[in-house]
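From the shared-data thread, chain only:
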Amino acid sequence: MQNLRNIIELLSTILEAAGVIIIIAGILFFVVKFLFNLLKDKPDIYKSLRQDIGKVILLGLEILVAADIIHTVIIDPTLTQVFALGVIVLIRTFLSISLQIEIDGKFPWQRKN
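Structure, as tokens:
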């Protein structure tokens, strides 16, 4: 049982690292892409940069939430940890919705036209 717990804890840590790496690497990639597009004088490059960075942050946040859920449910399922997880999920959900509004210009539950 302890071996399984250690494996899950390791997977949770790997997911957390992956989420952070995705955010950092994505931001770096899209900033470099922005700088190249700036040299080419492409239209709407600032809007494109904001949307691309927003998407990569959303992806990273989703992975971080999954890692937090795994860690809390499997590794440390105390009431304090569950409450902390709830607060973290609420904050990240708010951030995700805010980023989605910023990217699409409308709420995620609104139909696409």
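Helices lie at 2-40, 45-75, 79-104.
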